[in-house]
Amino acid sequence: MKFRSVVPANISKGTGLVSYLAHRFTYHTHEQWIGNIERGSVELDGRRASRHDTVSPGSVLTYDPGDFQEPPADLSYEIIYEDQWFLGISKPGNLLVHRAGKSFRNNLIYQLRNVHVPSFPEAHAAHRLDRDTSGVLLVAKDPAARAEAGKLFSEGRVEKEYVAIVHNVFDRRIRKISLPIKKDQLSSISYKFSVDPDGKPAQTEIISSTKAGPRHSLVVLRPLTGRTHQIRIHMSAVGNGIVGDKLYGMSEDLYSRWRENPSAISLPFHRHALHCKSITFIHPFSSREITVECDIPSDMKRLFEDLRGG
Fold first, then answer.
1. Domain boundaries for CATH 3.30.2350.10 within the chain
2. Which residues are marked as active site?
3. Spelled out in words, what is the top-level CATH class assigned to the domain 78-309?
4. Of the four, 119, 177, 239, 256, which is 20 to 30 A from 17 by CA?
5. What's the rounded Cα separation, in Å, for the pair 300 and 273?
6. What is the pLDDT of residue 285?
């Protein structure tokens, strides 16, 4: 199976091919991409690529990875809402929404477009959910629905409610967390963010909290803004990191070791215990208020009961 990619408009003309591949497709190192190119596995605009080639916006790359094993994923998603324009998906933990790394097929959008019966060939996610985050995901069926959904989210007209199981007893006096977020300039991890006074405004409303034994809590919350990793960062910042959150709960050294060999690191929970319980919005085509709800999954229910019993 070959994979095709078009170089986006924000890439400078004359960018080195190897550099572009290593930064865009991080499942191979710089040296591994050189090897792939020299083996003839990469084509640029229909011809065999050279390691000395450069790319420009619009360049077409084709990659033949040969036989490979994709990382395992939980493909037990469910369609829990559907109309002419949208799908509401109950996404399990350990399922990417989009392709990343070597998960070419084991991601939700690929499954909806190519595997699901009936298929949804123009399916696009209307918002983000991290791989480990379970719960409601809104998917647009076509570009027109995608554009309207994008407006809803960018204008803050979608209400989302999450459930998180966190370390330590949550301080019930906290009703709202207002801490700006920015990419972590001090981190060696390119996709890590942090609280930063120079960051973008970020607010998370606390709806309720329930003790889960002497050292944990179950917190229901509502993000009022949509920053990357917002809930995970805010919970960590107030001393209540989410159980199982590797990126924001481990030291960077330990996280790097886990990335290299996940089986060598013992985890308190197999994913971060965060679930999108519901989304509510005024439908852009029917003008009806729509709420799509998804119950807390069984793994988080078991975790809550285990912690409460302990």
1. 78-309
2. 130
3. alpha beta
4. 256
5. 6
6. 97
